[in-house]
Amino acid sequence: MRKTVFAEALLPDGWARGVAVEVDGKGRIARITTGEPGGALIALPGLCNLHSHAFQRGMAGLAEHAGEGEDSFWTWREVMYRFLAHLSPEDVEAIATLAYAEMLEAGFTRVGEFHYLHHAPDGTPYANPAEMAERIAAAAAATGIGLTLLPCFYAHGEAGGAPPAPGQRRFLSDRDSFARLWTASLRAIAPLEGAAIGFAPHSLRAATTAEILDLLPLATGRPVHIHVSEQVKEVEACRAILGATPIEALARDIPLSPRWCLIHATHATAAELARIAGSGAVVGLCPVTESNLGDGIFPAVAYRAAGGRFGVGTDSNVLVSAAAELRTLEYSQRLAGRRRNALAPRGGSTGRALWQAACEGGAQALAAGPAGIAVGAWADLVLLDPAHPAFAARSGDRVLDSLLFAARDGAIREVWARGRRVVAEGAHPARAAAEARVAGVLRRILSA
Ligand code: NGQ
Ligand code: ZN
Description:
The protein is α/β, with parallel strands linked by helices. It folds into 2 domains: 2-45 and 375-431, Urease, subunit C, domain 1, CATH 2.30.40.10; 47-365, TIM Barrel, CATH 3.20.20.140. Helices cover 36% and strands 19% of the residues. The strands form 3 sheets. It has a 7-stranded mixed sheet, with no helix packed on it. Strand 2 (14-23) and strand 3 form a beta hairpin. Helix 2 (89-105) packs parallel to helix 3 (131-143), helix 2 crosses helix 14 (431-446) and helix 12 packs across helix 13. The longest helix has 17 residues, at 89-105. It is globular, with a radius of gyration of 21 Å. The structure holds N-carbamimidoyl-L-glutamic acid and zinc ion. The site of zinc ion has 6 residues, from loops. N-carbamimidoyl-L-glutamic acid (NGQ) binds next to loops.
């Protein structure tokens, strides 16, 4: 048992001073006491990054150049498909290692990897169906980040079961090959301490509700993640083909429950927001990517008023930062509603409301066990130095508000994942080598 005292810590029911945290040999919190002397740092619970496509970190910043026609989510997707066609399993491992080191530095202690890059560039399955899943697991092991692997089922190109496009051939499974992929993925994460798994039908463009229902028994009791209602064109196509919006079609055919995580849900109607909130499902918001891709603004104020749960994800990984996701979420509501402190309770801190909600929603969506700094939870901690200029003369909520809205990069001093200190002095020790490997991958791809 190892005991560390913090000057202040954000516990599930609020800030406490002189917080001693005892961690057991497996990396779980065994005991918490308060009022102890000698603490120096400020402790926050680490956040779950509930939605990542790690390989997309490799193309960050490379899709910001206008094409000849008007650019959109769909033209970005073409660029993304062209990029991924170049990636070998070694490349994916290098990029994921860099992305995961960056996530840890940025306050994420677990990642939900929504993993669909399964096959060789020509669509041929690798001899080992979990070849790519093992690369993701290796990146998690090399960095220490907690992993919830979300093997993705992808079978079609459009709602209603239309054939996939050539650019999608690395993703494809049928029911039988997906069952084999699932079993191999379970094996891939078995050696990884603290890892979990969930089922990820990509979207109602890529999977029918009949297929999802058919495959759900593989994942009994585990998380289920799906992209829904991100683009207006997607909502309209679902209406035309399925006679319902993606959220209506999903909820009509499959009961939503707290196991479900609906990624984006950007264009949810008021009735859909109430339905999601009532089911206990989590909405997986990815505000930085949603801004980057021009998706639209999720009606978060209305959803929170309906009691809805949410977590955040870095999705395309164009920028990797827990603070930026929460800040962008709040700013989207301020811009749309012409108001301030949109997601704070009356008289409360915006930073705390956002961090706590994302902590709870993220842990639920990734089956991470108890959320927050609590007995039985993983010792997943983000540690801040009160002497950092961003936190001058501040404590408690003001520290968190300053971290989200005002601090420059580098304000996170240390990060622990499952009791291990994986970031020290603001840096992850695996990042520099991973950066060099990824630079080599990019030189090869960009000169091709
Ligand atoms: C993805 N990303 O799977 O990487 C998707 C794009 C799609 C986001 N939706 C592809 N942000 O949705 O068809
Ligand atoms: Zn996504």
